[in-house]
Amino acid sequence: MAFELPKLDYEKTALAPIMSEKTLDLHHGKHHQTYITNLNKFISGSEMAKMSLEEIILNSSKDKSKTVIFNNASQHWNHILFWKCMKPKGGGKMPPKLETKIKKDFGSLENFKKEFIQAGITQFGSGWCWLSLNNEKLVVSKTPNAENPLIKDMKPLLGCDVWEHSYYVDYQSRRPEYLENFFEKLINWEFVDSNLD
């Protein structure tokens, strides 16, 4: 089964000015598509061609000889989640179930926001920051390059891309500003809440 680039749930102009049409053209249309093209090429004719994306990620993460497959498969999965985690006029109030769970596990919404943004700021070089379920507890983490919490037996609910191509066109080197705007104006909290189930 060949993997394909997912269609966005919104127009490429819909997240501007927080995330510009130019950024989405480059990020979705070029970077994400390249991961998919490479993944399809690397697994063609192998046993992995019959696996789900999650199975490919977990299988290749344990085998150093499959690093190139892991990187492209994981980046494809990460971006599928990333696009869903955003919506036009996002941010704002969370659904009650998610808000209650975050307050329980982080002490307050402000603590969670601070921890999430700090994870993104302090991820050295390329990578991601995450909100995940670790057993029944919500945790914030950061991962380098293509890695994601799936390989640590956690369930990612929210992911933010902190590779430079996700923000450099709009923010240059101002990663903290990008993360603040992502949190306050882009996150699709209804989608994040649905991932709790």
Strand order of the largest sheet: 2-1-3
> Which fold does the CATH topology of the largest domain refer to?
minor pseudopilin epsh fold
Overall SS class:
mainly alpha
Principal-axes shape call: globular
**Cα distance, first to last residue?**
28 Å
Query: Roughly what fraction of the amino acids lie in strands?
Result: 5-15%
**For the CA atoms, what is the radius of gyration?**
16 Å
Fourth-tier CATH superfamily name of the largest domain? Iron/manganese superoxide dismutase, C-terminal domain
Number of E-state strands: 3
> What is the mean pLDDT?
97
CATH architecture of the largest domain: 3-Layer(bab) Sandwich
Walkthrough of the structure:
The chain is mainly α. The protein has two domains: 21-84, Helix Hairpins (Orthogonal Bundle), CATH 1.10.287.990; 96-194, minor pseudopilin epsh fold. The chain is 49% helix and 12% strand. The chain has helices at 21-43, 53-61, 67-84, 96-106, 109-122, 168-171, 175-185, 189-194; strands at 127-134, 137-144, 155-161. It has a three-stranded antiparallel sheet. The radius of gyration is 16 Å and the shape is globular. The mean pLDDT is 97.
Topology:
Layout: H1 21-43, H2 53-61, H3 67-84, H4 96-106, H5 109-122, E1 127-134, E2 137-144, E3 155-161, H6 168-171, H7 175-185, H8 189-194
Antiparallel strand pairs: 1-2, 1-3
In short:
The protein has 197 residues and is mainly α.
